[in-house]
Amino acid sequence: MKTMTCRQLGGACEKEFHANTFEEMAELSKQHAMEMLQKQDAAHLEAMRKMQDLMKDPDEMNKWFDSKRKEFESLPES
User: Fold this and answer.
1) What are the backbone dihedrals phi and psi of residue 7, each rounded to the nearest 5 degrees, phi first?
2) Long-range contact list for 21-26, CB < 8 A, 24+ apart?
3) What share of the chain is helix, strand, coil (3-state, %, to 5)?
4) Which of 2, 4, 42, 78 is 20 to 30 Å from 21 by CA-CA measure?
5) Is 67 helix (H, G, I), strand (E, B) or coil?
6) Backbone torsions φ then ψ of 14, nearest 5 degrees
7) What is the pTM of this model?
8) What is the pLDDT of residue 78?
9) How many domains is the chain partitioned into structurally?
């Protein structure tokens, strides 16, 4: 199992997520983002806006996603 924070995954806080695969990690991050969206958390809304801008360019989005996957894979098991 590996640990990453919301901020490491493009978010706005230090909430930790624990997962065995990058796909699981991404899903946990997505669920957290939806919770923060419902709460209208300003910092997370800004982080989501930046992600939406990134998604406008598929190549840039893929580069970002690949870099996060590599970061996950390089982490020690917790």
Assistant:
1) -60, -40
2) 22/68, 22/69, 22/72, 22/73, 25/72, 26/68
3) 65, 10, 25
4) 42
5) helix
6) -100, 15
7) 0.90
8) 83
9) 1
